[in-house]
Amino acid sequence: MSTPQLFVHSRFTIAPPTLLFIVLASAAAAAPRNDPPSASYDAFTEPFQTIDVAAAEPGRVAKVFVEPGAQVAADALLMALDSQVLRATRAVAVKQSEATSEIDSLRIEHQRLAHRYQRLLELRSQGAGSPDEVLQAETEVKIAQLRVQTALERQRIAELEIAEIDARIAMKEIRSPIAGIVTEVVQEVGEFVAGAEPTTVRVVDLSALRAVFYLPTQVAMQLQVGQTLALQFPESAADVAATIRHIDPVTNAESGRVGVEVIIDNPNNQYRSGLRCRLHP
After folding, report:
1. What is the pLDDT of residues 44-74, one digit of tens each?
2. 69: region left, alpha or beta (phi > 0 left; psi from -120 to 50 alpha)
3. 191 dihedral zone (left: phi>0; alpha: psi -120 to 50; beta)
4. What is this structure's pTM?
5. DSSP bridge partners of 185
6. Cα gap 269→234, rounded to integer Å
7. pLDDT-based confidence at 129, cuts 50/70/90?
8. Which residues have C-beta within 8 Å of that of residue 214, sequence separation ≥ 6?
9. What angle do CA 15, 21, 23 make, to 5 degrees?
């Protein structure tokens, strides 16, 4: 390829037309793009929250209480994993915590030995009996008292085991962390929820919608958090107010745009998620 030649005339150097075109095109590409003042910006609405409700531990699905489209309150029971073994263990712990026959018998034995010890002390004070007998009786009373205390501690441990089992049973119950609408039931009765894929139900909060507009920096700089904006749904030509929730503090270097998140109140699910909304700054 031949090297472009420069034409020299008097004191000035003139570049050939091809080289001038390349330079001008590069300068135009490097110049920032300014949208016209009347530009509009589109975004799509999304649920205010989308929660993939996960099981706290693996297990087989025993019962499903909801189906897609169901409205649920916060803490509503969505699904239950099998807990038969835990419930059987709990029944044993309850029996152990309620059993009093062992404690009663040990207390009776302690009272008998304590009475015998007191009799030996009286006899010893009268010169009868031996010091070894008194010492032996005192030791037996203390051991009997410790046996009663041990039985009471076992009863207390059984009560604590019940509380632990109840907590583990509660972990088998999958509840919604938010009020919303069930959009998908991922696991069905009989399926196994694995630790690597713990999602069981998807719940969305549509009481409000969110949308993220990507605006030129000069437009975003004129906005502030908490400001109310007027939006429009092009499909229905409905106008709606939105509140700015967040403005990205950093401009995207490639696009020169700034993300601006807005929230749209959606009482009674008046507006659908996934619709296009338009902003005219």
Report:
1. 999 999 999 999 999 999 999 999 999 999 9
2. left
3. beta
4. 0.69
5. 201
6. 18
7. confident
8. 41, 43, 252, 255, 257, 258, 259, 260
9. 80
